[in-house]
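Assess the record.
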Amino acid sequence: MGGYVQLPITPFRPSDPTDPVTKYMQIRQMQQENQLRQQQLQMGQQQQRDQAALTQAWKNWDGKSPDSLIKGVLDNGGSGAAANQLEQQLMARQQQHLQLSEAEWTLQQKKTDRMLGRFTAAESVPDSQLAAHVQSALADSVTKGDLEPQEAQMGYQLLQQSGNDPKALRSGLDTFKKAHMLDSQIATRAKEDAETRKNTAEAAAKEQETSFYQQNPSAGAPGVSAETVSLRDYIQTPQNPGEAPHTPANYPAWKAQQEAIATEPVKTRIAQTEAQIHAQVQAQMLPLLEQVRQLNWPIMMPARE
């Protein structure tokens, strides 16, 4: 019997903490964790700066242009990403306005105008009467359909948060007013863009139409039918000897004659094709029918041509 040699078993020993490789890996991991924490901290700080910049830009906005609001974010220390995000939000709202029909757009603008009128009226109300005025205006806005109940709830929350402080209430009303001003401007811009696209499309179509008639004089001109052009050409063309005078009264008969001449070759080719097909069918069927006749099957034979 053959023997075997038992190999020595190496016992498992955990890595020595003082091993250079292990120590390097530990240090590297700690550095990566520190970098990640630093990045998270910087991101948090930038988000705070962006929020502060947006708030300040909103307070300083003069209500004249959405572009100045976006620029205000950058002017107040906000990042380019924050400005781009705001611009994308405004563009998304503009696309929503573009989806509205003319009647829907007009109705929405009327609602916004009435709300702006209410905000303007509140500016002249004495501080002692402001809260009651706002509460009445909110109820009136919901009744007339200018505000959805969920939107009006934000106004009631403002009343609760401001308490008896008319300054805080006016600040909140100013924010709501600017929001409606901004939406009105976005809606107007959407309508202007839609009109520009429509005018551009109409101009392109007109240019294509003009180019078509320039390249195809026989088709007439824009607004002139091909039938009218054909009648004009018929009247202006000298008549052949023996031909009826070229007058509007004789035009229908002349046109029918020309159409018959134009379609005659086609009709001739159709007749010739039908004759050829008939001859081929006869040539293929006659031998078969002859075999059937010889078998005395009761099948009528077609007349031989």
The two ends are 108 Å apart (CA to CA). Residues 45-206 form one domain. The CA atoms of residues 220 and 229 lie 6 Å apart.
